[in-house]
């Protein structure tokens, strides 16, 4: 009597793990040579690969500016919005699709000037978003005007030849006061450390703010010295907002690493819409 073997269906081969380069799109960056934003692109793709994020579950959102070009250079879902509105768009996306990993990218002008009010309320709302701000203390895309984080005595802009005379915006202090539950600072010249911070930020359940020192060698060539001025924090991060405030106020603005992290309830709408896209569109027509 001949034995018969049980029939079975062969399992499909496992999907190979994505590498950092697999997250880069075919669009070539148009940043100036030496721009720090290249370091953020490298760190973001490495972080996505480390976290094994499916491309279809990652959404990059931005506003306007040099740094806001980032979504075009990453092979995932992306939205290039209007000036200062990246966090509003990202909040709506996260509310509608809480299953997505939503990362927001912007610069010091987009985030702290026209987008400043959205920044405050995104911090206090504590939705599960990661906000990367590439700070070069200048409006680079519009040829070098002073930004909210520019030194008050910077005289290289034709619009402010005597300096702005205005105190600088303090991103980490404002983020803490507004309610962000994860605050860190990175430097594009330390891409491996920046990758680690982005991994932590994305994994954190809540609003994560990563302040990235990103030199502009075109309009702020003196920022080349930042590589000699930055230094890692000598302390572990704190969960105490009062202690975090003390450290931030005593800091020289060049300390790198995770500053503050605390797990608090995240905000998400209690009710989801069940309407179809066609039904929503119909509401806009009489």
Quantity of strands, as a count? 10
**Roughly what is the average pLDDT, rounded to an integer?**
92
How much strand? 15-25%
CATH class designation: Alpha Beta
Order of helices and strands: HEEHEHHEEEHEHEHEHEH
What distance lies between the first and last C-alpha atoms, to the nearest angstrom? Answer: 77 Å
Low-pLDDT parts are 1-7
What spatial form do the alpha-carbon principal axes imply? globular
**Structural domain count:** 1
The CATH architecture classification is 3-Layer(aba) Sandwich
- CATH homology group: Thiamin diphosphate (ThDP)-binding fold, Pyr/PP domains
Global Rg: 21 Å
Number of helices: 9
Strand order of the biggest β-sheet: 2-1-3-4-8-7-10-9
Q: Percent range for helical residues?
A: 25-40%
Structural class designation: alpha/beta
Major beta-sheet overview: 8 strands, mixed
Kindly summarize this structure in a few lines.
This protein has 286 residues and is of the alpha/beta class. 29% of the residues lie in helices and 16% in strands.
């Amino acid at each position: 009597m001949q034995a018969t073997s049980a029939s079975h269906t062969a399992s499909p081969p496992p999907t190979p793990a994505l590498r950092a380069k697999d997250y880069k799109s075919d669009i070539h960056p148009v940043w100036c040579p030496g721009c720090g934003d290249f370091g953020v692109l490298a760190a973001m793709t490495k972080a996505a690969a480390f976290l094994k994020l499916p491309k279809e579950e990652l959404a990059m959102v931005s506003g306007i500016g040099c740094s806001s070009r980032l979504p075009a250079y990453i092979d995932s879902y992306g939205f290039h919005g209007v000036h200062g509105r990246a966090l509003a768009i990202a909040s709506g996306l996260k509310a509608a699709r809480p299953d997505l990993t939503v990362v927001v990218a912007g610069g010091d002008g987009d985030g702290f000037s026209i987008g400043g009010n959205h920044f405050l309320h995104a911090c206090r709302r504590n939705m599960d978003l990661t906000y990367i701000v590439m700070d070069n203390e200048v409006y680079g895309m519009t040829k070098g005007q002073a930004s909210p984080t520019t030194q008050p005595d910077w005289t290289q802009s034709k619009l402010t030849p005597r300096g702005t005379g205005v105190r600088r915006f303090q991103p980490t202090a404002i983020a803490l006061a507004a309610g962000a539950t994860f605050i860190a600072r990175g430097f594009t010249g330390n891409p491996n450390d920046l990758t680690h911070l982005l991994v932590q930020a994305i994994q954190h359940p809540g609003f994560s703010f990563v302040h990235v020192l990103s030199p502009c060698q075109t309009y702020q060539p003196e920022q080349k010295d930042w590589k000699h001025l930055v230094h890692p924090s000598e302390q572990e991060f704190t969960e105490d907002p009062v202690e975090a405030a003390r450290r931030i106020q005593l800091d020289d603005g060049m300390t790198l690493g995770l500053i503050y992290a605390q797990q608090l309830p995240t905000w998400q709408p209690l009710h989801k819409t069940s309407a179809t896209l066609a039904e929503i569109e119909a509401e806009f027509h009489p």
